[in-house]
Amino acid sequence: MKSRELRRLYIDFFVQHGHKEIYSSSLIPENDPSVLFTTAGMHPLVPYLLGEKHPAGKRLTDFQKCLRTGDIDEVGDASHLTFFEMMGNWSLNDYFKKESISMSHEFLTKVLNIPQEKLSVSVFGGDELVPRDMETHDIWRSLGYPEDHIFYYTRKENWWGPAGETGPCGPDTEIFFDTGKPKCCPECGPSCNCGKYVEIWNNVFMEYNKTRDGQYIKMPIHNVDTGLGLERVLAIINNQKSVYDTELFRPIIHKIAEVTGVEYDGADEETTFAFRVIADHMRAATFVLGDDKAVTPSNVDQGYVLRRILRRTMRYLRKLNAPNGTMSQIARVIVENYSDIYDELDRNKEFIYAQIEKEETTFGKTIENGMKVASRVLEKLTPGNVVSGDIVFHLYDTFGFPLELTQELAAEKQLLVDVDGFNKKFEEHQEKSRAGAEKKFKGGLADTTAETSRLHTATHLLNGALRKVLGSDVYQRGSNITPERLRFDFSFDRKMTEEEIAEVTRIVNEAIQKDIPVICEEMSVEEAKAHGAIGVFGDKYGERVKVYTIGEYSKEICGGPHAERTGELKSFKILKEGSSSAGVRRIKAVIGC
Fold first, then answer.
1. What does pTM read for this prediction?
2. Cβ-contact 44, 130 below 8 angstroms
3. Rounded to whole angstroms, how far apart are CA atoms 212 and 167?
4. 449, HSE (Cβ side, Cα atoms, 13 Å)
5. What pLDDT shows up at residue 448?
6. How far apart are CA 486 and CA 500, in angstroms?
7. Is the peptide bond preceding residue 220 cis, with omega within 30 degrees of 0?
8. CA distance 112 to 230
C-alpha cells in the first residue's frame, strides 16, 4: 500500500463516520509559545479542545505535519522520526470512549486488515488522584482483547495534559503492534524500549479538569483526541522492518546513494544509521523551510532547531564523503514526492533550495573557523595529553564541530579526548534544553487568560497597522504570546525608521481608544477572501473559518482567543524592533502600559 492510499483510507473512513475533513496546519504554531513546532495533530486544535466552537463541527479528521526534536538521538532506528505525519480524529463534546475505541479497532482490523492478535493496548492504571480507567479496559475486553494484551501504566505513560498548568486533561489508551521479536524479559510490555512493541495510535479522553490546587474534577463536557502515526502504520501494513523501507523514504535514500556512491542496502550499521539520519533530517528541514511562515536558519527558536538539523545532516554527509550541493539535490526529491499532498513545498521550493545552499556554505566557513580554533588549542598540548571535555563541547556547541572530527585531529597529534567529559557536558546541555521546553509549556493557548486574549487582539491591530504604514506586501511570519508581552514577526527587508514605529504605535492606540467591538464571523475560505480577510490561505476551498473584524483596522482569519472590545487593551507600546532572520523583522510590545 502507498502512503497516498493510506491517507485516503483513513480520511474516508472517518468521513463515513460523520467527521469533517480539515487540512494540515502550519508546522509553526500560531500565537503559542508553549512549543516551537506543531508536535501533534491536536496542537492546532487546542482552542477548540478547550471549548471554542469549531467552524467545521464536532467531529473532525485530518493528517497533520508534525515535528519533534525530543527523540532526535533515537532517529536512525526502525521507528523514530523528527518530522512525521499524524493522522487524527476528534470529538468535541460528541462521542466518547466506546465509539472512539471501536472506530480505531475497526479501522486497524477491518480496513487495514491487521490481525487483532498482533495488537496490544495500554490503559491508565490509576493513582491517588484519579482511579484506574476500568471503562476503557472493559471496552477493549468487549472487543475481544484478552487480559494479557491489556497493560496498565502510570500517569507518565497513559495520561495527557493539561496542556498548561490547569485545564482539561485525562487518561489515554495507546495501541501497539507486536513486531514478533522475543520478549526481552518476563515483564516485557509496550513500555519497554526493546523494539518488540511499536506504538501506532493514541486515543486521549479529556474528561477531567485540573484545578489550581491540584485536584482533578470530572467535567460536564468531554473531548476525544487521537493520533495515528502514518509512517509507522505504512511500514507495518507493508511488512517492512523499518519506516525507512517505505516508499516515503526509498527515493530519498536512493538519491543519497546516487550522489555519494555509497550503497545503502547491505551496508554496515554505521553507514545505515548515517543514511537514515540524513533522510530524516532532510525531510524535516525541507518541510520547515517550505512552510509559508518562512523560517530560516538562525541562532534562535525555530531557526536554531532548523540550523542544528541541517548541520547534523552535513556532519553525516561528510561521513559518506558527499560532495558540496548534495543537500539541495536531496531536497528536490522530497519536494517532488510531496508537492501533490502539500502544495506549499512547490510554492516555496526556490526558497528551500536557496536557504539550504546558503547554510551549507555558512557551515563550511564555520568548520573552517572551528578547524583553526581546534588547531590552536591542540598545538598547545603534547603527545599523550588529554583534550578536556569542556574544550570538546565548546568546539561542538559554538562551531558545530563534531566530536569525531575533534578525535581525528587529536589522533593525528597523538592526543587523547575526554569523551566521558564531553558526554557529561552534552547531557547537561540537553537537561537545560528540556527544562527550557518545560518552561515554555507554562504559557500558550492552553493557558488562555484575559491578558493573553488582549495581547492576541493586539497582534491583529499591529499587523493591520504595519500593513498600512509599510505596505500591503507585509505579512505575519509568526508570533509568540506570554501573559506579559507579545512578539510579532513580519516580512520586511529593512530596519523600521523611528517615524514608522511611531506611526504604527499611533494607529494601534487610536484603535484602542475608539473601543471598537471585536466581531467574529464564520464563513468559507472563498467568502473570507472576498471580504478582504488576511491569513494563510490553502487551496482547499469550502473549509469554514473564523474571521475576526476590528473596524477598519483589521480583518483576519484566526482561531485564537480575543478581547471583546479594543478598549480592554488600554494602551500599546513597542519595546523593540529588530531582525529575526533574513527578510523578517521582529517586534516586541506590551499593552496596558
1. 0.77
2. no
3. 9
4. 14
5. 65
6. 19
7. no
8. 12
Which helix (H) or strand (E) covers residue 355, if one does? helix 349-379
Let me know: does 246 contact 283? Beta carbons within 8 Å: no
Q: Which three cell numbers stand for residue 459?
A: 497582534
Let me know: does 191 contact 153? Beta carbons within 8 Å: yes
Grid coordinates 563534531 are at which residue?
402
Structural Rg of the chain based on CA atoms: 25
Distance CA 94, CA 479 (A): 32
Cα(576)–Cα(528) distance, rounded to whole angstroms? Answer: 32
pLDDT in tens, 244-265: 999 999 999 999 999 999 999 8
| DSSP annotation of 565 | B
Contacts of 2 (CB under 8 A, 6+ apart): 247
CA distances from 489 to 298, 334, 587, 588 (A): 14, 28, 6, 9
Q: What is the rounded distance in angstroms from the CA atom of residue 519 to the CA atom of residue 563? A: 10
112/116 Cα distance (integer angstroms): 11
Q: Kindly report, residue by residue over 32-83, the tens digit of the pLDDT.
A: 656 788 888 887 888 888 778 888 899 999 999 999 877 676 777 766 789 9
Percentages helix, strand, coil for the chain, rounded to the nearest 5? 45, 20, 35
Question: In this structure, what C-alpha cell is assigned to residue 279?
Answer: 533522510
Instruction: Fill in the amino acid letter for 168.
Output: P
> What is the sign of the dihedral through the CA atoms of 259, 75, 182 and 102?
negative
